[in-house]
Structures are given as C-alpha cells and as structure tokens.
Write a structure and sequence with these properties.
alpha+beta, eleven-stranded antiparallel sheet, 2 helices, 22% helix, 202 residues, single chain
C-alpha cells in the first residue's frame, strides 16, 4: 500500500477522532430568560440537565450583567428564592474536560468556586478557582477548568451567597470504538510494507 492509499484510509479516521474530541459549549443563549431548573439543553448531540436541591426554580436563566459571561447566564437565586445552593449538571455522555466562566455575588473579597466531577456517582476529582473584580463591573468573574479524568456529572458550588455560570465548554471522552478503528487502520496500513520487506529479503 503506497502513501496516498494509506493517507486515504487514515484521514477519515483521524477526522473521526478529532470529531469525537471536538468541544461543545452550553451558553444558555437559546434558553428564554426565566427558564429555571430543572431543564435540559442539547448541543452537538450532547445533553446537559441542570438541577439543584431547591428545585423547582433553584437557578434561572437571565441576561448577563457581566463582562466575561455574555448573552444569557444561569444563576441563583431563581424563582425558588433560595441562596447558598449547589448547581448540578448531568451529561448524556462521558466527558474528558470542561471549562466555564463564572461570577460570584461578592462586593469586597472574591469567594472561591469549586467544580466537582463524578462518573456514575463516583468522585473523579475537583478544581477550585477565585474570580477577580474587573473595571466597571460589580462582581468578581473568573474561569475554571477540570480535566482530571472521565466524568458525566458536575456539581458546582461556592462559598458566595449566589453565583452564575456561562459558556460550559465540554470535551467529550473518545468512544472506545474510535481508538479501535484508528488502531486497526494503522495496523492495516503497515501490513503491505511488511510484506514488501519480506519479499525483498526472499
């Protein structure tokens, strides 16, 4: 098999692997202001269900009043008028990484925000970040990321009374079959070269 034939075989599989790892962003811009937990958004075939312990109405979608959180955001208190809540997110498939923007309801000292990842209820890991006050804006804003393992649920919490999130950028975990296909393609592309070397020695 020559290089051109190998490339034709491998390119679609490389693109398949890249697609499996493409990022997907949940930004709430397609949700009507006032939409409250529990609700589900679907982007690029991945569904995220947002919920809290104060549902119905623990968190709600509202227009942003922030700099780095744009369009619509999801924050508390929602119509349940409860503070100090955690926000849960169940994903319809396994993820490898997530980043998101957040803001906390602080006026003097920014409070930390923590994301804790689970796989089918088993703790995977967590990350904590603290926002900063930006010129011209009232509340500290920041970005937080987690990529320490495969997970399908996230719990977001803060010591602040309330917080808001936006732009949940998730990276799906590769499907096991994707690696199997790529491995098979690599193996097949090497067989003709091995046969040629054996024939040359004979």
């Amino acid at each position: 098999m020559n290089f051109n034939k190998s490339a034709k075989l491998l390119c679609p599989l490389v693109l398949l692997c890249a697609a499996a790892n493409a990022s997907t962003v949940f930004n709430f811009d397609g949700d009507a202001p006032g939409t409250s937990t529990t609700f589900t958004d679907t982007v690029n075939g991945i569904s995220a269900t947002f919920f809290s312990s104060a549902d119905p109405g623990g968190f709600a979608v509202y227009p942003s009043m922030f700099e780095t959180l744009t369009g619509n955001v999801l924050g508390d208190p929602g119509p349940a008028f409860q503070d100090n809540l955690t926000l849960g997110v169940d994903f319809s498939r396994d993820l490898a990484a997530i980043t998101l923007n957040f803001a906390t309801s602080d006026f003097i000292t920014p409070s930390p925000l923590t994301i804790t990842a689970y796989e089918n209820g088993v703790l995977v890991g967590s990350a904590t970040s603290t926002g900063q006050f930006l010129p011209g804006f009232d509340f500290p804003e920041g970005e937080i990321a987690f990529g320490g393992g495969i997970f399908n649920q996230l719990v977001i919490s803060s010591t602040a009374t309330d917080f808001a999130v936006d732009n949940l950028n998730v990276v799906p975990a590769p499907e096991p079959g994707t690696f199997a296909l790529l491995g098979a393609a690599l193996l097949l592309s090497g067989i003709p070269a091995t046969r040629r070397r054996k024939a040359a020695r004979a």
